[in-house]
Amino acid sequence: MAAISRDDVAHLAKLARVEMTPDELDHMATELDQILGAVKRVQEVATADIAPTSHPLSMSNVFRDDVVKPSLTNEEALSGAPAKAEDRFKVPQILGEE
Amino acid sequence: MTLDYKGATEKYEPTLGLEVHVELNTNSKMFCSCATEFGAEPNTQTCPVCLGLPGALPVVNGKAIESTILIGLALNCSIAPYSRFARKNYFYPDMPKNFQTSQYDEPICVDGYLDVEIETDEGPKVFRVDIERVHMEEDTGKSLHVGGSTGRIHGAEYSLLDYNRAGIPLVEIVTRIIPGTGKYAPQVARAYVTQLRDILRSLGVSDVKMEQGSLRCDANVSLAPIGSGLLGTRSETKNVNSLRSVERALTGEIERQANRLEAGERIIQETRHFLEESGLTRPGRSKEQAEDYRYFPEPDLVPVTPDAKWIEELRAKLPENPADRRKRLQKEWNVPDSEMNSLINAELVDVVEETIKLGAEPTRARTWWLGEISRLANEKEVAPTSLITTAFVAEIIALITSGDLTDKLARQVVEGVVNGEGSPKQVIEKRGLKVVSDDSALMVAIEAAIAAQPDTAERIRGGNIPAAGALIGAVMKATGGQADAAKVRELLLKHLGQG
User: Which of A74, A93, A98 is the best mutation test for B, with the most CBs of B within 10 A?
Assistant: First the structure.
């Protein structure tokens, strides 16, 4: 059985707000399945005594002091926004699906 | 027939669950160095990190971790030796990154509890609220929904986003389900949030202002027929912005659910919004479909691994539990419940304690804060503590105790200090508010009063001591209130052969 189904891909695409055609879904399902298959080989060497890795460096407790540094100006912050109004980012209506 | 709250809780057993979000009061944000000040101009406290610009890298604010561990310790939690941040992925413009950095299966603090006491029909009763977890995350931006008829999300034409709040350290405190509260569920919830707020305030980790959103409560409740042993479908009420609202929202929600069940309808698992004006809730997002946030460990941040030494250092810093402290102070001050409650409700316990520590006589410290200073504060519609410092109050009380000021004069001194005329010393100086303690000066006034009311004087000579009141009053008037009434009485009675 495939590790990832076409329905899984459709679901993920919806969650990620990525529009995909039926062809793309077929294609991506096959490709992702192959990728997962390849990655699965790691399980052959990853035994119970090896902890899962989420970070390549074995570091912990990297903290900053609680000190304020200058922020961007309002103009700088909004300079990349597709739309703005009243010093704020302007976005299309949200939760229309509610 | 519609069930009222009493009817609802006679038939159904509520089960509670509470999620409290606390904004920490750090100077800078959780993962970047932007300021966290409330009320700044929109989008003036942002940077590439909190705007989610490509390539920006977060770094954890150490103070925020420390505050979270303190909260965990104060709530009797275990501190995890290893915890990680995770990405909670969702599409909603309040987080410009399209994910919120949060914690998932590895929170910093787990398995705590808080005992809350409420008044029941059978007297005070303690309920233990088990805490499942205390985890760290970041706050979201503020949305302004424009257009549409209601100003709500539904029907808005567009939304405006201010990301000043995005990235402010947020701690989420989640209880386990709280069974067995019966009809007291709303009071238990309120008492829990109240006590939590007091603890957070005593730790100094948050402003805990519900009206400003630095403390927010989501109240979950479900109902099941009493004795059924079942757990009903829950609803989650958000937008509960005051302690009173916690209680109101749950009362309303229990009634609503009970009546739905009575009508044979089912409860929908959903988020509801509390409406402050009516005390009712309205439906929000439905949670019928389990959310899929695709959590995964945040690759840009390394784990948090507090060692035992650090934890013990923080534990040593924990202040006394506010509830215990109140009990202790009430005993020390020997005051009845009613007066202690007045002090607590007026948020004057701290200043009274401080004033007493500064040497003020305890009864006077309480009376002055709760009386004259609170009265002036009410007039001005400000907090009593904003009017005058504890040091000045202690100084004034010391002058009363030593006999340099009468209560009446002291009121004028307080008024002067409150009006910005300077320190108590300066006000006394400027207004010439000194008790006339010079016996000879008082004797002149006493003799004048006797001369003016010879009949009264005669009655006193004849043994009618209560009649002295009239003459004392006259002397006080003549000295502009600057005499010590007790002293006047003593001199007068002596002069008239009754001393």
Answer: A93
Question: Which CATH code for domain B439-495?
Answer: 1.10.10
Cβ contacts (< 8 Å) between B287 and chain A: which residues? none
By CB atoms closer than 10 A (0-12, 13-18, 19+), residue B447 is: middle
Q: Do A59 and B43 touch (CB under 8 A)?
A: no
Percent of chain B scored above 70 by pLDDT?
96
**β-pairing verdict for B60-61 and A63-64:** parallel
Q: How does DSSP assign B294-347, residue by residue? A: --EE-TTS--B---HHHHHHHHHHPPPPHHHHHHHHHHHHT--HHHHHHHHHTT
> Looking at beta carbons, which residues of chain B come within 8 Å of A91?
93, 158-161
Rounded alpha-carbon distances, angstroms, from residue B476 to A4, B74, B408, B456? 94, 55, 11, 16
> What is the C-alpha to C-alpha distance for residues B128 and B188, in angstroms, rounded to an integer?
10
Q: Do A93 and B158 touch (CB under 8 A)?
A: yes
Contact check, Cβ <8 Å, A98/B154: yes
In Å, how far is A95's CA from the nearest CA of chain B? 7
> What's the pLDDT at A53?
75
CB contact under 8 Å between B91 and A17, yes or no, is yes
Neighbours of B376 (CB within 10 A): 18
Is B448 part of the contact surface with chain A (CB cutoff 8 Å)?
no
Query: Cβ contacts (< 8 Å) between B27 and chain A: which residues?
Result: 66-68
- A1 pLDDT band (50/70/90 cuts)? low
CA B183 – CA B120 distance, rounded (Å): 10
Q: Tokens 């609202």 label which residue?
A: B245
Facing A66 at nearest CB: one of B61, B84, B285: B61
8 Å CB contact between B25 and B207: yes
ipTM: 0.85
Give the integer Cα–Cα distance in Å for B60 and B137: 11
pTM of the entire predicted model:
0.80
Q: Is B200 exposed, middle or buried (0-12, 13-18, 19+ CB in 10 A)?
A: buried
Whole-number pLDDT of residue B149: 56
User: Average pLDDT, stretch B197-208?
Assistant: 94
Q: Does B228 touch chain A (CB under 8 A)?
A: no
DSSP assignment of B46-76? --TTTTT-TT----EEHHHHHHHHHHHHHTT
What residues 277-296 of chain B have any CB closer than 8 A to a CB of chain A?
A: 284-286, 292, 294
Overall average pLDDT of the B355-378 stretch? 93
Rounded Cα–Cα distance for residues B17 and B222 (Å): 9
* CATH code 1.10.10 region(s) in chain B: 439-495
